UniProtKB/TrEMBL annotation:
Entry's EC annotation: 2.7.4.9
Binding site for ATP: 7-14
Organism: Halogeometricum salsisoli
Record carries keyword Transferase: yes
Official protein name in the record: Probable thymidylate kinase
Assigned keywords, A-Z: ATP-binding, Kinase, Nucleotide biosynthesis, Nucleotide-binding, Transferase
Length: 203
């Protein structure tokens, strides 16, 4: 089963991802951007204010393709629980915001279309919901995406994704204390894993 953690920068994904490691020691914990030369290329582009947004989309997508073949598909083939800190929804939400003012028509649909051809969608996604101002303040503006005005557009895209697939997403109020957020996420993951097991027995 593939569970992804999504949300704005500073929403607390890494904090809950670390907490889940203690609860699921046998699961595969992974993240995007990955720790690979593809991930390095992505970080290089993020550090460049003038990077072309379409080229940047394809760098993130190349990193995802490598992540799929090297980590995600092999782990799922072994029936492992996989928990990824960011995954394809980050591309749909962030790069669609970056490409909003480009010549590209309907960037979110375009990016989803590219992924539909090769990606493996998550079984469930925990969305850590926080307002853009809190997110930017927590994240500390360490890259060009961590600005409230940009994050507001990213958040709108996440809402569109949730509207399109309400059953895949579990929304958690990430303005609560870290302890409460972790508890909510742990309970949600426990339920998702249990329901996945029940489906397996029926299937
Ligand atoms: N619920 C919370 N309330 C207050 N502060 C929090 C909360 N969760 C995390 N933080 C703090 O916010 C900062 C960002 O947290 P974290 O790295 O977990 O977020 P993130 O979503 O992984 O961010 P990024 O996407 O930028 O890597 C850290 O300093 C963390 O301690
Ligand atoms: C996977 C992915 C990530 N991003 C952005 C979102 C964040 O600003 C950074 C990653 O930062 P982190 O602190 O190392 O998590 O990358 C993106 O724009 N598109 C993506 O697909």
């Amino acid at each position: 089963m593939l569970i992804t953690l999504e949300g704005l920068d500073g929403s607390g994904k890494t904090t809950v991802w670390e907490a889940l490691r203690d609860v699921y020691p046998d699961a595969v914990f992974t993240r995007e951007p990955t720790e690979s030369w593809y991930g390095d290329a992505v970080y290089r582009s993020m550090a460049d204010e003038d990077a072309d947004s379409l080229a940047e989309l394809f760098l993130f997508t190349a990193d995802h393709a490598d992540h799929l073949s090297r980590v995600i598909r092999p782990a799922l083939a072994e029936d492992d629980l996989v928990i990824s800190d960011r995954y394809s929804d980050s591309r749909f939400a962030y790069q669609a915001a970056s490409l909003e003012d480009s010549d590209l028509r309907r960037p979110l649909e375009f990016i989803r279309g590219i992924h539909a051809a090769f990606s493996r969608p998550p079984d469930a996604t925990i969305y850590l919901d926080v307002d853009p101002e809190t997110a930017a303040a927590r994240a500390g503006a360490t890259n060009k995406f961590e600005r409230a005005s940009y994050l507001a557009r990213v958040r709108e895209n996440y809402e569109r994704l949730i509207d399109a697939e309400p059953h895949r997403f579990v929304r958690v109020d990430a303005t609560q204390s870290p302890e409460d957020v972790v508890e909510m996420v742990e309970r949600s993951v426990e339920r998702l894993v249990r329901e996945d097991g029940d489906d397996g027995r029926r299937g």
